[in-house]
Each structure stands twice: as C-alpha cells, then as structure tokens.
Specification:
This protein is an alpha/beta fold. Helix content is 66%, strand content 6%. It has 39 helices and nine strands. The strands form three sheets. Strands 2-7-8-1-9 form a five-stranded parallel β-sheet, with helices on both faces. Strand 7, helix 26 and strand 8 form a beta-alpha-beta unit. The two termini are 23 Å apart.
Length: 942
C-alpha cells in the first residue's frame, strides 16, 4: 500500500476546493465542477463500459452550449450565484480602475510601488518606527512640492500611487471572490452539474443503463451476512415494536418461511432491549438440557449487565490458581508502585521544608493542647468510674445499648459518612482557594507583578489557553474518533492533542522559569506553603467523594450460586478415626461423603422462574426492558415436534415484566391463528400474540442491498429479488453470487450475468430433482422423462455462451411446458414421482421466464409495456411466482403463465430461437455482435 495522502478522497475534494479558490472565473469554476463530478467513483467506474459513454464523450457533451445553459438554468435562482456575480462585478471594476491608472502613467507602477514598500520596510527594520515616520513626512513634503510645481514627475508618481493603493481593494475583492467561488462551485456541482451529467450519462449509455453492473469491492455486508450495522428497518420490525410498546410482558411468536429474516428480527429486538439475549433451540431437543443452558446464559448475561465477572471454573489446581492470582496482584502492585512511590517521594521532598517549619512553629502549642485533652479525659473517666458522675454513667450505658442495637443498621457510621461527604469537599475546596488567594493579598507579590511586561502576560495567557484547550480536546469523544491512516500507520487525533498539550505545558514552564520577572514570583518564600495547602485541599475534596465498594447484590450472589449448582458437582467427605495405642490396637473408623444432586426439571423450572422474576423486577424499577429470544424452533423438524417443544418449555413462560420472542415455522403460526375455532393445541395457552414476517418487497430489497453494498443497481436487485422470492437469506446469497459471476465472466451487462446465474441455479436444482427421481420406481415406458431431464442437464453443462443457447432453450422450453399430467404415460407414473416432475417442470418454467425477461434487450421499455397490460406485468410478481413454487407447482404455473402473457412471451415450447439471440451487447466469450455474428481479433473485456 503506497504511503501517500493523495489516495484519500477527502484530500482530493480539498484540493478541488483549493483549485476553485485559485481559479475563480466562471469558466474555470464550471470546468472544475465537471471534472469533480466525473472523478466521483460512482460515475468513473461506469464510464467507457459502453460505446460512446467514455469520459471524453461526457466531458464534451457537458461543455456544449445547450447543456451548459441547462446547468446554469437549474441554479440560476441560487443566492450563492447572486453573491458570486456581485463580487465578480466588483473585482472587474477595481481591475478597470487600476488598469486606467496604470495607462495614465509612463512609469512601471509595480516597480515604483515595490521600491516604495521595500524602502519603508528596510528603514523600519534598521532604524525603527520614529525614523520611518520622519521619512514619511519628508516624502510627503517632497510630493507636495512636486504637486505645487505641476511637473511630469508628480503626474506619473500620482497615478503609480493610485494604482498601488487600488491593490488593497483588489486583493480583498479577489479573496472574497475565491471564497464565493468555492461556495458557488459546490452549489453548481451539487444542484446543477450532477443532475444534468447523470441524465446525460444514462442517455449516452443507451437502453437499460441500470443493467450495467460495475462492482468496486465495497460489499462488506454481503460477505458477512450476520455482521452488525447492516440492519434495515422493515414493516415486521415496526409491528414488533408496536406490540412490545402495548404489552408489559408476554410471549410473542415470530413465524415465517425459513430464511425470511426471523433471526435478524430477534437479534435486533434483543439489541434494542435494555437487557436481552437470544438462545438457539437445539435440533434434537432435550427440555432439561435446554433449560440448563438457558439458566446459565441468563446468569452470565445478567452478571455482565451489572459489570460483575462470571465465576470461572478452571481446571487448574488450587496451588496454580493461587500462583496466578498472586502474580496478577504483584503485577498490579508493581505498576501502582512505579507511579505512587516516585510521586510520593517528590511530594515529600518538595514539602519537607514546609512541614518542618510548621512543626517547629506549632510544636509547643500542639503538645500543650494534646496534654490538656488527655488529662481532661482521664479526669472524666475517673469520675465515672468512682461514681461521682451518675448522669454521665447513665448516658454511657444508654449509648452502649444503642450501639449494640444498631449493629444491623449502622446509622451512626452512615450519618458520619453523610456529614463528611457533605462538608469534606467544601472544606477541601475552601482550603485550596484560600491557599491560592493568599498570593493575591501578598504585598511582595503584588509589588513584583508590576514589573512584569505586558508581552509576558499575553504569552503566558496564550500558552495557558492553548494547553487547556489541547488537554480538554484529547478527552472529548469527538476527537477520539478522528484518525488519519498514512500507509500502515494510524495517527489518532487524541494522541496529537496530548503531545501538543505536553509541548505547550513544557514551554510554558520554561518561559516562566527563564523570564526574570516571573522567576522572582515563583521564588517567593511562601509559595511552598501555598502549594501544600492546595494539595491538601484537593486531597480532602477527593477523599470526600470516595465511597466504599458496595456490597455484592443479592441477585448477583444468587446467579453465582446458580452457576455453581448447574455447572459443578460438589463433593464433601468427612472421616473420623479413633483408637487406643496399646500392645493390641483397638479402635474404629467412620467416613461420611456428601455430594450434590443435579436439579430435576421441576426444580430447575422453579429456580429459573424465581431468578428471572427477581431480575425482571429489579430492572423494571429502573425502567428497563427484559427480552429473551428463542430462535430456530422451526429447525426441530415437523410442526408436531415444535409444538411438543413449546409444551415442555411452557412452564418458564409468563414471567412478570419479561418478553419472550420465539421464532416458529409457519405451521405453528397457522395453528395459533385458528384459536377459538374447533381446534386447540399448546399454542393457544403458550403464546400471547404472533407476528408474520413476510418476504421483503422489491423496494425493501433495494434498500437492503444498498445498505450492504454500493455496487448493485435496480436491475441487479431485480434479479436477486426474483430468484430469492424476497427471502432475506437467499437475497444476500444471490447478491454475492452476482458479484462472483461478474468477477468470473468479466462482463458488466445484466443479460450475461443473469444468464449465468439463472442457468447455474437451474442446473443445480434439476440435478437435485434427478437424484430424487432416481429413487422412484420406473419402467421402460415411463423413463422418457428421465431422458429429457438428462439431455437438459447436459445442455446446461455444455452451454458456454449465448451463441450456443439455441438447443438449450429449445430443450428447456419443451421440458418446462410439459407437466406430469401432460405426459402420454402419466397414469403409469407413481404419485411421488409425478409430484417431483411437476415441481421440476414448474421451476424450469419459472427459470425460462426469468431468462426470457432479463436477458432480452430493452428491459425498461418492456417492463413499462408489461405493467400497462395489468398487475401481472409488475416486476414484484416474479418474486411472488418464486414463492408460489414453495406452495404448489400447479398454482405457480398458473401465475407464471399470466406473467408471461403480460410480458408477451410465447406460451408454447416453440420459441423464437433467432429472436432470443438478439442482444444489444456483445457476447463476453466470442464477442459476437447484435445478431450473434462472431467478431474476431478482439480480447475479452476487462
């Protein structure tokens, strides 16, 4: 990777703006806007992919008078254009006045003005400001004499000075024009050039510009389907949020076909909840094992939510664990000591003189006060002991009883802690401020401050403000997110701010120390006392804010105990041996072993519900939502197994303040919606509501693929949506397959990509049907369909390009138009085989329809014509036909027939082979022309 900043898009845009500032004329601004629009990756990658649509062609078209006028007409009413024109006129007037003055003089006015300025600067630098003022007065006197005499020198000098003075308004107008050119250029680029250029590019590309697919390798969301950050809001998500907002708790089933996005819906809901997670239902479920896994996950997630580590059940011996714990503590202590000990040593060294002075000053008075207090306490204790202070003795007895009673509620310590928290910080702040305030009332410091120069004050203020701004900026989240990648190195803005703060702080200290006037202030004898008071006050304020670590909550302790019980088997052994040491030994031995028993299913259910209810109640008091998702229930097999699974786990549902989301198959959803009819099952009492997740529409598919990839066009989205039927999992898979086929064939046209993808899917599907049909019973008379299927699979494998698609399309049309009922020997075919044949022919019929619709030229024109024929000509009907294949091949064939009629496709196996080969783009393998005639001497496109 080259270590160059020129590869950065933001830097390229900045350079373009600088060019607009340096070249602000109208024609240059327009040309820069056109170049900037052409250099945009979204346009640059599609240029020159079709004849007549190169960068040069677009650039030439955009500079024709017609399209230039169109661009200006789109932004003619913009306020930035009026400001730009106003400044441009003002600059032209200044230039005209300056040129007029230059034409009046016979001298080179640039040389005269340059000589005048250079001489003035030299005089000021060498002799100072007073001498420069004197020179100006003498020059004014000479100019007045020349004016009085009216010589030619005065005439030429006058117009040279006028032209030179006009340089200032000229420079100001030029700077403002550059700024207005940048603002106006951005408006012209965004609102004028881009819309006109995009329309012109689409026109130059010919028919179906959206059929051009040019990927640029930005499909991260397709390569990682489960990666976070690519979720697109759908109607199912909005419906789920509405149901959750109207329920305090409950169990909601999420049903839909496999691959429609139920897992994504559950994961998104869990992420939006304050406390939520998703667990996977096992394929071969055991309710006890599933509940154990769910309980462990609940405990771990809650402990993580409360910032407590989950207990680790290590396999190491206690001695090794002790060594590891000691090593961690020693490492932490060593790191702490490496900072604490030097800091303490430096602090003690700096304040030692202050402490000794205070000790010498207050030693005698402090000792006398302490002795007096000790003697008074001794006298008081002696009076109580001797019985001379009866009332005091009674109060002492009451205080002792109250202290013992308060052992379960230490209100005294809590009261003292509150007093310290309330007044300790205030006391520390007052002490720190008082220590600093003594410097302002010190006469000696006030006297020294009068000798500090104003430049020193200004420099100190600037350095202090810069240090404070750099240091605070390094702590802000906005600065921490900014970084610059240069080659293999990454520079973070927060590190730059910290280095800048360190440099400014160091230079500030160096300036204060090296300046004699500020050094005298720092050398004041009372400064150590002030600094000691400041440090003491800060420490008191910090100590007042200290809180002891709170005790571990009861729920966390319950979670730890639950994890120990579920994940470990505890064994305790007690041995007792007694005897008498005589010549003959006589004694006995007794051993007792106790081990825990794993909880049975009822006890596990009760513990889980109790723990979950406690967690939910605690979080509900904070206004937080608890959500548990159970995914992949539809993976259990049949609907009977899924219903049996719901019946087993029904006992854990219905917990207060807890939402359950369970993904189920469509069969289970159908059983729930029939509640109240003469049909009752476990769903009637287990589920509170149900959400049907439908396949995504064509518009939602476009949004999803745009979110995950910047490459797909409307036509490639149509291809992926039609093949997937709108199922999210298949939509992402086909979106990635489109990119793989483009990389393999190195073609950019939808017709070629769609052909490869459709035939590849058809080949794999028919191969699977042929394997299933091979398991059926066949006779000589009924095996003809297998021969047709074998020939069709052979054509699919040997067909390389559109040039050789004639036999393939003929065989595909004949196979697709003959369902099992139309076969001459259909009565002799078994029911299972007949069903497979109907499904295979219906899918072939669907593939043939997609092939004829998406590979023929003029897709946009034909789609409008088909839509005018009725609702069956709309593009989303193709995905509906694909979904209908999962319901019944017969209803799907009826729907496909109506779609073909709307698109004016042949409804018989005798298709127009010659017409199917006509295309607007050349064959990627043989480079054949529009009518299939092969071109020679041309390499495949890149």
């Amino acid at each position: 990777m080259p270590m160059s900043l020129l590869n950065r898009p933001w830097l390229t845009t900045t350079l373009r703006l600088v060019q607009l500032y340096l070249h602000p004329s109208r024609d240059e601004v327009y040309e820069h806007c056109v170049n900037l629009a052409l250099d945009a990756p979204r346009r640059a990658r599609i240029l020159d992919k079709r004849p007549g649509s190169s960068r040069r062609d677009v650039f030439r078209e955009m500079h024709t008078p017609m399209y230039r006028s169109t661009v200006y007409a789109r932004v003619d009413a913009a306020i930035h254009k009026a400001a730009y024109d106003k400044v441009l006129v003002a600059l032209e007037r200044v230039l005209a006045k300056q040129q007029s003055a230059a034409d009046e003089t016979e001298w080179p006015w640039q040389a005269v003005c340059t000589l005048t300025v250079t001489t003035s600067f030299i005089v000021f630098a060498v002799w100072g400001l007073p001498t420069l003022v004197s020179v100006f007065l003498i020059a004014a006197l000479l100019i007045f004499i020349l004016f009085w005499t009216g010589t030619a020198v005065w005439f030429n000098l006058r117009y040279c000075l006028i032209a030179g003075l006009l340089t200032l308004p000229r420079a100001a107008a030029r700077a403002e024009l550059g700024y207005r050119a940048v603002v106006w250029g951005r408006t012209l680029h965004d609102d004028g050039v881009i819309p006109v250029m995009d329309a012109r590019i689409r026109n130059l590309m010919g028919d179906d510009p959206d059929s051009l697919f040019v990927p640029q390798g930005t499909s991260t969301g397709l390569r990682a389907p489960r990666a976070p950050g690519f979720v697109v809001p759908t109607e199912a998500m909005a419906q789920l949020q509405r149901k959750l907002s109207h329920l305090d708790e409950g169990t909601i089933a999420v049903c839909g076909p496999r691959g429609v996005g139920k897992s994504t819906l559950l994961e998104n809901a869990a992420n939006q909840a304050h406390f939520g997670f998703v667990v996977q239902a096992p394929a071969t479920y055991a309710p006890h094992d599933f509940l154990v896994s769910l309980s462990v996950r609940l405990c771990q997630e809650y402990m993580q939510h409360e910032d407590y580590p989950a207990p680790e059940f290590a396999r190491l011996s206690p001695f090794h664990r002790l060594l590891q714990s000691a090593r961690r503590r020693i490492t932490a202590l060593a790191r702490w000591s490496s900072f604490a000990l030097p800091a303490a040593a430096l602090l003690i060294l700096g304040t030692s003189s202050v402490v000794r002075a205070l000790y010498d000053q207050y030693k005698k008075s402090a000792t006398d006060s302490a002795n007096s207090a000790v003697f008074a306490a001794q006298d008081w204790l002696r009076e109580v002991w001797d019985g001379k202070a009866v009332v005091t003795a009674v109060l002492v007895i009451v205080a002792g009883i109250a202290w013992w009673i308060s052992r379960h509620d230490p209100w005294v310590l809590r009261f003292l802690g509150r007093i310290w928290s309330s007044f300790g910080a205030t006391l520390g702040v007052l002490l720190a401020l008082a220590s600093l305030a003594t410097a302002f009332f010190d006469p000696q410091i006030r006297q020294l401050m009068r000798h500090i120069h104003s430049d020193t004050f200004m420099l100190t203020g600037v350095l202090l403000a810069g240090w404070f701004y750099a240091w605070t900026s390094s702590k802000t989240p906005q600065v921490r997110r900014v970084r610059l990648d240069i080659g293999y190195r990454t520079i973070h803005a927060s590190d730059v701010c910290r280095v800048l703060a360190a440099g400014l702080g160091t230079y500030l200290v160096y300036t204060l120390v090296r300046t004699p006037s500020t050094y005298a202030l720092l050398a004041d004898a009372d400064n150590p006392f002030r600094l000691a008071g400041l440090v003491t006050g800060v420490l008191l304020a910090r100590a007042a804010g200290w809180r002891p670590r709170p005790a571990k909550p009861q729920l966390i302790t319950r979670c730890e105990s639950h994890l120990y019980r579920l994940q470990t088997i505890q064994t305790t052994t007690n041995t007792l041996t007694n005897g008498t040491a005589q010549i003959m030994s006589l004694g006995g031995s007794h051993a007792t072993s106790i081990s825990t028993i794993p909880p049975n299913f009822p006890a596990l259910v009760e513990d889980f519900r109790s723990l979950l209810a406690g967690i939910a109640e605690t979080l509900a008091r904070r206004g937080q939502r608890v959500l548990i998702g159970i995914d992949e229930v539809d993976r259990l097999g049949s609907d009977a197994q899924a219903l049996a699974f719901l019946a087993e786990i029904k006992a854990i549902l219905g917990v207060r303040h807890v939402y359950y989301l369970i993904s189920v198959a469509e069969d289970v959803g159908a059983a729930f919606v029939r509640r109240g009819l003469p049909h009752r099952d476990v769903t009637d009492s287990s589920l509170d509501d149900i959400i049907h997740v439908d396949a995504c529409t064509l518009e939602e598919a476009k949004t999803i693929l745009d979110k995950r990839s910047e490459d797909h066009t409307a036509h490639t989205v149509l291809l992926a949506h039609s093949l997937s039927g709108g199922l999210l999992r298949d939509l992402l898979r086909y979106g990635l397959q489109i990119e793989e086929i483009q990389a393999k064939t190195r073609t950019h046209e939808l017709a070629h990509i769609a052909r490869e993808l459709i035939l590849e899917e058809l080949s794999e599907t028919l191969a699977g049907f042929r394997t299933l049909l091979g398991k059926q019973q066949w006779t000589y008379n009924t095996s003809g369909i297998l021969s047709d299927l074998r020939m069709l699979c052979g054509h699919l494998k040997t067909s390389e390009c559109e040039c050789t698609d004639g036999p393939l399309r003929q065989a595909l049309g004949e196979f697709a138009h003959q369902p099992a009922a139309a076969l001459p020997v259909s009565a002799d075919i078994a029911d299972g085989a007949r069903q497979l044949i109907d499904e295979a022919t219906a899918y072939s019929f669907f593939s043939l329809t997609l092939l004829e619709i998406l590979t023929a030229p003029g897709l946009d024109r034909r789609s409008h014509e088909a839509k005018a024929e009725g609702s069956y000509g709309e593009l989303p009907r193709l995905a509906e036909a694909r979904l209908e294949l999962t319901i019944s091949p017969h209803s799907a064939r009826t729907l496909i027939t109506r779609i073909r009629k709307a698109w004016s496709l042949n409804d018989s196996p005798s298709i127009d082979i010659a017409g199917s080969h006509r295309r607007l783009t050349p064959c990627p393998l043989h480079r054949s022309d529009t009518f299939g005639r092969r071109r020679t001497g041309q390499a495949p496109p890149n």
